[in-house]
Amino acid sequence: MADQEGSSLFDSCTFAFVPCNTLTCSVIAELSQSIARYGGQVCKRKRDGSLPLASITHIISNTIEFPEYDQSLAMMIPIVKSKWITASLTKGKLAQIRPFTPDPRMIFSDVMLSCADIPDNDKDTIIGATMAMGGMYSDGITKLTTHICALSMDHPKVRMAVEKKHKGKIVLPHWFDDCFKLGKRIDEGPYLLPDPEILRMSPGRSIEPQCSPYLDGAISARPDYMQPPTSQERVLHLTVFKDKKIMLSNDLEMRDRLRQILDGLVTGSGGQIIDSAQECDWLVCRYRDTEEYVQASQLRKTVGNMSWLFYLIQHNTWSNPLHRLLHYPEPRNGIPGFNDMRISVSNYGGEARIYLENLIKAAGATFTKTMKADNTHLVTARDNSEKCDAARDWNIHMVNHLWIEESYAKCEMQSVTVSKYTHFPPRTNLGEIIGQTFFDEKKLQALHFPGGPEKPTMPPPRKRKALEITDDDALAESASSNTAAGRQPRKEFDIMRDGDAETVGVDELPPPSNRRSTDFATPARGRHVRSGKENETPSSVASSSRSAKDKALGKLSNLAPDIALYEKEKKRGLKDGHGLWGGKRAADLIEREHLNRRRTSSPTAGDDKEPKSEKRPAKKARPTLPEVEIRVILTGFKRWVNDKHKEDADRKKLRDMGIAVVQDGQPCDYLIAPQLVRTVKFLRNLSKGAVVLSSTWIEECLDTKQIPDPDKYVLKDSENEKRFGLKLETSIRRAQKNSGHLLAGIPIYCTASIKNGPESYQAIADANGAQFMVYGPRSGSTIKVTNPEDDEGGPDPVYLLSTSTPEEKKLWKRFEDMARRGNMEPRVVASDWLLDIVMKQEVSFDEKYLVKNFFM
């Protein structure tokens, strides 16, 4: 507690309050007295009701739903919850800003974390990512600790907390992992020790759908009626329209009676209805292509739809229409790409289901109550239901609501391969976090109203002693930019994984990963966390880094490019025996960089006698990297196995030479391999016609720091060429001629339960233009019936990749019948058939590949 009344704790602070349901007038009056008692000042609002931003240092608000929010961020004015005042009084000094932000996108802003028996790499990752998302960390357990992360109840910290009846929640690290993957905060209930539900109950057990508070008044863009206000007093004392000029667009197509009612409500509360988009403060319209919408948006007016207007009347409080997807005008023709989509919904109930139905229609897709084989997507809150089973059998994309929400918010269809769209935490119904997605205003502007004045820029920094002693928000940027949401473990291909030392055929497949969906894997952390009671940061950094939090928030929604790299590194961590890839490695590299900078910039012992007033020498300009001349993809490369640090150093050497090691799927000049291998990378890039070089070429580049002639290092492997019955030079020449169309028009099915899963086979088939489909017990007939008279050379073949397990044998007869009904020749083959023809880049068939012969 602050030492005494009359101290100067808030001496340099000038506050303004934003009332809301949790910050009432009585609470504001009480807090104002405390502020005055400790030397602070409280500013009153201007006559027009706006905040006096030019004369305040802090805004106390438990919500970001007030008109001056964006301008406050641009002016670097801290916006904190009312708890910040209490925390400052308790500590006797100004508390850090970041943990008290009201921004809901900082999902851990109320979390004070302490870790117990967590491995170091996962511990560092959890701490770094939690702090990047608004939380705090304390090594010990204090009265402020809200969450203790532990694997069991046996750790001394946990036992002590139980003995002292600590109110903090003891959670498994899986909770943090699932929150990181989704970018949203889910309920801790199923993860609470000592008896966590995720370990006690089957994921398939039913879960009651949860109601999300973010859907209040925002389930439809065009409501049929206005919900009654939450209290009659709000109708009699409506103030939300005071001194506001509002334009109701003609595209609303409302009845005269409704327009008269709205006119009466607005004018009765001190507002005005006008017909000019240029002079109005708020525009209410339905579509984004009207002249009024474009003009008002370019002039930075507040633009919302009828649902938003009804919400203001119901709650008598301002709300940003960009923060609720169905409070903003719709695109008249939907989102590009959605017109041909047929989407169904499962496991969402009540208002969440109605909201998703309306959002799907607003995006331009067709919503179907029941699901059939012609559906393209299933939006589900869990991955367990009859519709989910049918989606797997019919090869229908199965995603959670984040996919449709972010597609609508970013005005373009998002890829269903992004891991957070296909993540379904066990024992959690994702309906509890629905409706939290904000619009991407930059995308809206670029697509619908380009031009117009820029947003208010940050004014020259003012000297604020109060800000100089707050926390360092700049560190949040680096932490959040390195925080990647993980993805579900994917079954690997039956052939050699990159980094292994030998090639494995289909007949000697490695067992699939036995890692359960509940196993913990954490994303990379962004900063080192010092131990101690609290993690305090230097005050001198804070005042110059106020805008970093906003940059970090923007980056949290654009993590997709980092996910693939993170997952690749995480898998290698499983092999090398050092645990899962997390923030430990990134932190070590950052620490070494800091040490190197300190060693080069700090004075030596002999220089201590030099006058302290002498200026530091200017930093040398960082040398720019040369342009990338050669792009390579490596597979089966043995030099970096079990040595991550060596890999980083070698990659840097290569990049300094103009050689970039790119990820699979990106354009490359050469494919590097020690020998002929049947990895996914090798087969996919061979299909593109990439020239294959021996890994000796990379070794020479690294050892000599020169780039030898690649033509002298073309891979030669006569032993494996004989084994696979091919000539690599011929295969490359054929691949360049095929241009990825080796299997164009050829239908290839794959059993859903094939050993190690169908995903990698699909990657290879797709790279060669095949029509790849998964075939399961519920799969219907997907072969188009042709006229036998049109088959001059006999019926075309259709292939099913399968093994000889009893479960898969049951599918053969039905598949063959389906093929014959479509006048096609069924061929149930081992997956080696696909691998061999792709390796040879020539379509052929031999009866030895038929499963009845191959597995005999």
TrEMBL record:
The highest taxon in the source lineage is Eukaryota
Residue segments, region Disordered: 474-553, 591-624
Q: Which PROSITE patterns match?
A: BRCT (PS50172)
InterPro entries linked to this entry:
BRCT_dom, BRCT_dom_sf, CellCycle_DNARepair_Reg
Membrane-spanning intervals of the chain? none
User: Basic and acidic residues composition bias: which ranges?
Assistant: 489-500, 606-616
Q: Where is the BRCT domain?
A: 5-102, 103-193, 338-410, 630-715, 799-851
Q: Name one GO biological process term.
A: double-strand break repair
Pfam families in the record: BRCT (PF00533), BRCT_2 (PF16589), PTCB-BRCT (PF12738), RTT107_BRCT_5 (PF16770)
Cellular component, GO annotation: Cul8-RING ubiquitin ligase complex; nucleus
* CDD domains attached to this UniProt entry: BRCT, BRCT_BRC1_like_rpt2, BRCT_BRC1_like_rpt3, BRCT_BRC1_like_rpt4, BRCT_BRC1_like_rpt5, BRCT_BRC1_like_rpt6
Protein's recorded name: BRCT domain-containing protein
